[in-house]
From TrEMBL:
Parts forming coiled coils: none
Similarity comment: Belongs to the pseudouridine synthase RluA family.
Name the record gives this protein: Pseudouridine synthase
Catalysed reactions listed for this entry: a uridine in RNA = a pseudouridine in RNA
EC number of the protein: 5.4.99.-
Enzyme class, broadest EC rank: isomerase
Organism: Gnathostoma spinigerum
Pfam families, sorted: PseudoU_synth_2
Source superkingdom: Eukaryota
Keywords: Isomerase, RNA-binding
Gene3D superfamilies: Pseudouridine synthase
Length: 438
């Protein structure tokens, strides 16, 4: 039985300024395979370092958070071992100034295994725990509610709106499904069973306890669970009275961005497609996953020559004149990787950067800098941070196409149960809408 979750009484006040309470307590669509690392982000206390009152405003349907101080922690990834800490920051995190890691290190904002790391030449070791105190400017999201489909002692099933990630990652923490469920719906302690891309909407299943988590992660990784999506693609998708099957293997192309592509040495993947309707320009297509590779539907549709409409990652000529159809890119994998990174650098969204900022950062990176007070609490830090890129840049207005993808997770089912959402408006045949209104 479906029901829309009631939003808090102060969710749509007349004033544009709102308050999101943070009480104490990592562009991936179609990823059905259980990942043990996900459980790390669900441990109690993940949001403990958040300030209790983070203000936000809504303008033209877009929700913006005020900047705030926060601490982010992670363990050293395998590809980081043996590399300098500052080099990892510079190469892995595309949204930071090139001098920022060095300056942050000198100021004592980075710790390794609980100790301040002011040595800019420190080389990362296996299982190092890295923490970073930073001034967080979260990306905006669409101001849309999370629909609660079912809430029982073992599971929470929701209809995720587009524009927000499932769990904290990158420039998102409060503006995530877990963050909003916790702070606006008072739902916490959830275990992530599968994920959807930030821009993908649709069905999400969370476990509420260990036994359910273990049972469902095992189930979701098998063919016993059938997964159905719906999407809108460019062009007239074939309708031959049967399903179109793509079983091209998928490999990782850009590790830091999670970008995938078809490749001979990739992992096996299989998707079945069926056209629902077309208007002669675009087609709405059913998608049935028989494996759960990252971005599987998007990559397979790109390969077939029918990329998802307005897909910022896979519907682009950066993949070649035919946008990657048949896995033909017209360039080497290395060149393709470089071109994709260049096409998605955050600096492309910068309207204007304070001209003194770059000089200040270069000076601080080269000269001696005294560390900040070690015991400075987050709530005592200033609203403006002189080394924070977000505080020193005016950003361009992000178009609405960057908030959503025409891809929706519609249904998960087994022989014993079915969980589903309603079709998004864009997936409904206009002819059916007209008949319903007549």
């Amino acid at each position: 039985m479906k029901r829309a979750a009631e939003r808090p009484t102060n969710e749509h006040p007349s004033l544009e300024e709102k308050t999101a309470l943070s009480d104490p307590q990592p562009d991936h669509s179609e990823r059905a395979e259980p990942k043990s690392k996900i459980s790390r982000i669900d441990i109690p206390g993940y949001f403990d370092d958040m300030l209790r009152n983070v203000r936000f405003r809504v303008e033209k349907g877009i929700r913006y958070l005020d900047p705030y101080w926060s601490s982010y922690s992670c363990f050293t990834k395998g590809r980081w071992v043996g590399r300098k800490l500052v080099d990892v920051f510079q190469e892995e995190f595309l949204s930071v100034n090139r001098f920022y890691p060095i300056v942050a290190c000198k100021l004592g904002r980075i710790t390794v295994n609980g100790r301040r790391m002011t040595d800019i030449n420190y080389v990362l070791k296996d299982n190092d725990r890295i923490s970073h105190i930073g001034h967080r400017h979260e990306h905006p999201i669409l101001d849309q509610p999370i629909e609660i489909i079912e809430d029982n002692p073992d599971l929470l099933i929701v209809n995720k709106p587009p524009s927000l990630p499932v769990h904290p990652c990158g420039q998102y923490k409060l503006h995530t499904v877990l963050g909003l469920l916790r702070n606006e719906y008072n739902i916490e302690g959830l275990r992530v069973l599968h994920r959807l891309d930030r821009t993908t909407s649709g069905l999400l299943i969370f476990a509420k306890n260990y036994e359910t988590d273990r049972k469902f992660k095992s189930l979701l990784s098998t063919n016993e669970c059938r997964k159905e999506y719906v999407c809108m693609v460019d062009g007239i998708f074939p309708d031959e009275g049967r399903e179109i099957i793509c079983d091209q293997p998928i490999r990782t192309l850009v590790v830091s961005m999670g970008i995938q592509c078809v490749g001979e040495n990739g992992k096996s993947a299989k998707t079945r497609f069926r056209r629902l309707w077309t208007d002669g320009k675009n087609s709405v297509v059913q998608c049935f996953l028989e494996s759960g590779r990252t971005h599987q539907i998007r990559v397979h549709l790109q390969y077939l020559g029918y990329p998802i409409k307005d897909d910022q990652l896979y519907n682009s000529e950066v993949w070649g004149p035919n946008k990657g159809k048949d896995g033909v890119y017209g360039k080497s994998y290395d060149q393709l990787c470089k071109d994709i990174k260049d096409a998605h650098r955050c600096s492309l969204w910068h309207e204007r950067i304070d001209p003194d900022y770059e000089c200040r950062m270069e000076y601080m990176a080269k000269e001696k800098v005294e560390p900040e007070a070690a015991d400075m609490p987050l709530e005592s830090r200033p609203e403006y941070d002189s080394i924070c890129l977000g505080c020193n840049v005016v950003k361009k207005i992000v178009p609405r196409t960057h908030f959503m993808l025409y891809l929706h997770c519609l249904k998960y089912e087994t022989d014993d149960w079915t969980f589903s959402t309603k079709l998004p408006d864009w997936a409904i045949n206009p002819c059916e809408k007209e008949r319903a209104c007549s």
